[in-house]
Structures are given as C-alpha cells and as structure tokens.
Amino acid sequence: MAERRLISFTVGKYRFAVPIEVVREVVNMDSSVSVPGGRRPLEGILPYRGNILLPVFSLLDLLGVQHDESGNLVIVTGTEEDPLGFRVRNMGGIMISGGSDDIAPYEGDLSLSHGAIAGLLKKTGGELILLDVDRLFDF
Amino acid sequence: MADRVVIVRAGSHLVSLPFVHIDEILGADRIEALEDLPDGAAPERSNDQSWVFSRGSWLPVGVLLPGTHISDSSQIVVVRWGNAGRAFAVDQVLGIEAPGEMAAFPERANPYTDVPIAGIRFWKNGPVLELDLSRLISLDSGS
Q: pTM of this prediction?
C-alpha cells in the first residue's frame, strides 16, 4: 500500500489520526453559537466561509463516549458546500504512514460504529486511532 | 430593502421573527390563567395554562425557546401564520431591525434540535437565530 500523510490530534485521553486530505482546515471555536435545545453529538454551529454555517460535532460522542472535552479547535472536513467539523483539544503533527503494515485492529473502548475506526496505528512514540471520516459522519 | 425582523431575547439567545408575521406585542399582565377565561371562550387546547386575548381570539402562550420561562417581566409576541395564531413569551423585545443576509441553518444539524431554526443573521456583531415560523407554529400546534 502506498504511503499516506496523516495528521494527528487529541480529544480527551485519545490520540487520533486522519488522512491529511480529508482536513479542509482547522479553525477555533470562539465564534460558535449554541443551538437552543441542541442534543449531542451536536456541539454548536460556527459561522464559516461566506454565508455558510458549520455544524460542529463531538467526536467522542460520535464514537459512543460521553465527555466534557472543552477543546477550542475544530477540524473542518466535508465539502465546500456541506462542511462539517468536530472539536479537538490539541493538534499533533503530520506524519507518514507506510501503509497497512503498521495498522492493527482497534480493541479499545470506543465504539466501532459504521466502521469509523479503521484501526490502531502503531508509531514510534505511541499508538493512534486511525479514523475513517467519511464513515464517521455517515448519518 | 432588507426584510425587517423583530429581535427578541429568549434566555441566552437573540432570536429574530419576520416583522410581517408579528401581530402584537403585549405585556405579561395580559396573560390569563385557564380558569380565569370568560365563559364561552372555548380555548382550542384545554391543556394550556396561560392565554392571551388578541384580535378577537384567545391564544395559548408558550415559551419561544426550550429552557426559558414565563415571568412577570416577560413580553408576549403574537405571531400569525395564515389563519393560525400563537403567542410566545420572551424575556425582552429589543427592536425592529433590518439585519444582514441570513445564513441557512445546516441540514446536518437539524436532527439534533427540536427548535425550528431557519438560519442565523448578524446584528451588532452578534448572532441572531431566525426561526422558521411555519414550523414553529405547526410544532406548537402539535400538528
């Protein structure tokens, strides 16, 4: 399998990675608007580019874990017309994955709903949960 | 000319309602309890406890947003949509304005709130939620 460039980040106690091409940009949550009567996993909406509002979701809620993560960064994914975001605590770095050789099945406490967790990426310095963002937001 | 809206505060949110559909704005002193309605008033929804009389009919009073409450200092906004009328309690009516263009509420967020939000406008550098009156009134009517 070809090499892939991944970007890593943390949410709560978890470290994640996604292919860099699914990340449109990273913005901060400062101008977010709470949604009256809003329910998890929705965390709020954010004025985005031009006249577009970005729905921001809780990643851990999408993966079946309730939490009070208060990270101020939002990873924006999706399309230009239909963007969506999920909230993270810290951005990590950009790394190269050598393909499937360093990916093991994920056996932790997060839900594997819709196949959103592609596996556990073993890198020097620790393990990262590899996400399939398309499946994560397949709702 | 931009559409004029009535901007109100409901809890921690600012909300805009299309001006053309606002019939009246009343004080909380106009609220009558169900047991105080005059004979023959025949309210259409007997489960509602608070009522106002507006333009010849009794209308149930509800809160505009979940988590807010009717108090002695509330103001009552009477909304008309077609033949339907409803009254909503808000904390304060802030003004009649013509704010900028509305950004549509994202469809992906709709399943996660029961409040019918049409979008957001900006007024004095702050966000104002615009409600979809047709859905608001149909939801409030239980239809």
A: 0.87
